[in-house]
C-alpha cells in the first residue's frame, strides 16, 4: 500500500512540476536550472547513503546505478548551466 501512495505522490509531483515550470518566464530558466542542480546534488547524497546501507549484490548494484545516474545528472546539469551562462556574457572584451 505504501508503494501505491509513493507512486501517487510521484505522479502528482510530476504534474505540479510541469505546471510550475511551464509558467516560469524564459529569462528565469537558467537560475531555476541552477536550483535544480542543487536538488540533484541532494539526490546524489541520498543515493550514496542508500548504497552505504545496501546489503546483498542486487541492492548494491541498484545503489551503484543510482549513484552513477545521480552524479551524471548533477554534472550534466552544471555543464549545461555553464554553457547557458556563457551565452549571456557580452562579447565587448573580444574586440
From TrEMBL:
Catalytic activity from the UniProt record: NAD(+) + NADPH + H(+)(in) = NADH + NADP(+) + H(+)(out)
EC number(s) stated in the UniProt entry for this protein: 7.1.1.1
Topology class, membrane: Multi-pass membrane protein
Domain NAD(P) transhydrogenase alpha subunit C-terminal: 7-89
Keywords, alphabetical: Cell inner membrane, Cell membrane, Membrane, NAD, NADP, Translocase, Transmembrane, Transmembrane helix
Primary subcellular site in the record, as a coarse category: membrane
Transmembrane stretches, start-end: 6-26, 38-54, 60-80
GO MF terms, alphabetically ordered: NADP binding; proton-translocating NAD(P)+ transhydrogenase activity
Compartmental location: Cell inner membrane
InterPro entries (alphabetical): NADP_transhyd_a_C (IPR024605)
GO biological process, one term: NADPH regeneration
GO-annotated cellular components: plasma membrane
UniProt-listed PANTHER family: NAD(P) TRANSHYDROGENASE, PROTON-TRANSLOCATING NAD(P)(+) TRANSHYDROGENASE
Function: The transhydrogenation between NADH and NADP is coupled to respiration and ATP hydrolysis and functions as a proton pump across the membrane.
The name this protein goes by in its record: proton-translocating NAD(P)(+) transhydrogenase
Organism: Candidatus Thiothrix putei
Amino acid at each position: 500500500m505504501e508503494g501505491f501512495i509513493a507512486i501517487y505522490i510521484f505522479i502528482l509531483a510530476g504534474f505540479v512540476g510541469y505546471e510550475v515550470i511551464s509558467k516560469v518566464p524564459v529569462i528565469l530558466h537558467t537560475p531555476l536550472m541552477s536550483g535544480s542542480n542543487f536538488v540533484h546534488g541532494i539526490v546524489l547524497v541520498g543515493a550514496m547513503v542508500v548504497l552505504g546501507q545496501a546489503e546483498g549484490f542486487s541492492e548494491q548494484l541498484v545503489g551503484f546505478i543510482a549513484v552513477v545516474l545521480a552524479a551524471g545528472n548533477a554534472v550534466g546539469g552544471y555543464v549545461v548551466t555553464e554553457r547557458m551562462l556563457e551565452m549571456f556574457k557580452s562579447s565587448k572584451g573580444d574586440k
